[in-house]
Amino acid sequence: MPNDSYPVGLVFEVAFEPFTATLTLLSQTRLKFQIQEGPFAHSETVDIHVAPLGNGLFAVSWTEETGATVTHVQDFDRGVVHSHATLADGQFLRMTGPMRIIEPAARTSDDRPHRNKALVLDAMTSLFQRRDASAVDRLYVADYVQHNPHIPQGRAALKALVEGLSADVWYEPGLILAEGDFVAIHGRIRGWAPTPLVVVDLFRIEGGRLAEHWDVLQDEAPVEAALSGLAMFDPHEAKRGPSL
Q1: Is the Cβ–Cβ distance between 211 and 155 less than 8 Å?
Q2: How far apart are CA 181 and CA 203, in angstroms?
Q3: C-alpha distances in Å from residue 237, one per residue of 127, 229, 232, 234
Q4: Does residue 228 register a pLDDT over 80?
Q5: Are residues 233 and 129 in the same domain?
Q6: Domain containing 96: what range?
């Protein structure tokens, strides 16, 4: 998991020596725990404070209805929980137990894919719909790397390309997929060549800007000429993918 992403939705069991506890991570600020047997048996939903410590390690603390205070060091990389609890009567417990995953996390709090998809869509529409060369400085890193063999390296070359675009150039975005610092966007561009082109652009993002680019282009074939009987590109395909 990303080092600072608390795995919301995760349900896991911890086998401490005095008892076994089941924890459900409801959100970044709440969890539910259940102890089914023994003198500490009870269930409660508590407000928590989560402090990421890096490398899948989190310090998680809360206060229970009885006044007991608990601090966990939850180590998801090693699959172990270290617990320190001061009970209402002053008794102090120091426990360590292995964790067993019951249900995986529902989602990650890493929002890079969301932000990066929005960045790529902004870039493609700014440059190839509005032909706004000034957007290059805003959206691309200074040492931007270009892998298309027909375009020179760097931002200056990209700005010059945009400034020289024909008014006939028009880009239509389709499906966008993102993971970590990479985004792939499927689209169609008209006016770039005699035949409309269907293209997949792949970007690497660094520090909130576009840092590297690869692309693959094909001449668009009409549906009636396609052996598959399907269109190469549908501008509505984005609705079938994850939303921004």
Answers
A1: no
A2: 8
A3: 21, 16, 11, 5
A4: no
A5: yes
A6: 11-103
